[in-house]
Amino acid sequence: MSESASASVEPRRRIQFAFTDEQEEFRATLRRFLTDRSPTTEVRRLMATAEGYDPQVWQQMSEGLALPGLAIPEEYGGGGFGMVELGIAMEEMGRTLLCAPYLSTAVLAANAILNAGTEAQKKALLPDIAAGARRATFAITEPDGNWDPAGIQTRAAADGSAYRLEGVKSYVLDGHTADLLVVAARLPDSGPDHLGLFTLAANSSGVERSLLESMDPTRKIARIELHGARAELLGDGADATAAIRCTLDQAAVALANEMMGGAQALLDSAVNYAKMRVQFGRPIGSFQAIKHKLADMLLEVELAKSAAYYAAQAAAAQDAEWPALASLAKASASESYLHTAIETIQIHGGIGFTWDNDTHLWFKRAKSSEVFLGQPSYHRELLMQRWGV
After folding, report:
1. Rounded to two decimals, what is the model's pTM?
2. Mind listing the domains of the chain with CATH numbers?
């Protein structure tokens, strides 16, 4: 490479491969809080409610730990941290199956506003989200379950200075309890492929919300019907496709880290049970077949965890490849989490299939997380496209 050519190449930003002491202290503090506030008895209680979360715990998360605003810049009332700290928080929440509107509010909705909103809109909307006073969600998928923005069919029509939304959104995380909706819709007057993001109060006229049944009651999803609901355009009117994709990539990184927290909890459970359960006068963990199974699980979890950590570090450093790494992490974490859940149930034997055993709670979360934001096959295809294959 010539001297002039080398001088024109922008240097890559350095990506850390270890957590700092401050980040480890943050993890320890959060783990103590979640262990106390989200035991499986509390998870079981909350998953049986329609709301699916405890307002008092959400208030403690907001006022005591400032978690909703963790990754929101300080100028909008947040903590000003980045994707690495957000990943740590999500991992610890996944470890304890926290039932709270965190992914919907602090990750999906907050990032959608940050990615697409004007300065005035950010200052108007984000401080309440950062303070935990406004719960929000991102409505993109429709009844076909397609996470690709190209599949959006909801329409927006201009109505004076605002817009009217027509369409149906489905699988909207915490959509039944959110205060604010961030909705992706088409702007046909601006071209067939022009997408916009819109904000509206969830209790607005023309909005019908209903809680959907799902196999994972620890994470609530809703159907939202929009019948001429009046909404405000988020941003300056430019095509929002890039902002939508960026938001989904950020959510994929966060979810991958959450899944690895759950996978680690399952692995720990399997190891502890193998040490405790005795057959033929010896712990089952002493049998070679169980040892090998646990070793394989450890290797799989550590590899997927490394991908999730790396994606978070790359996103924080704004590395050029971070969107591709987001898909890599999501696909890897989805498969590792579900496989670890299946293997943990088998190690627990007959009791692992019973309602009294907590393993099935993580299994259901693993299955719902596998398809949320797109299945592994979808993210593999996206990864190849982003790598130019």
Report:
1. 0.94
2. 21-134 (1.10.540.10), 137-238 (2.40.110.10), 242-386 (1.20.140.10)
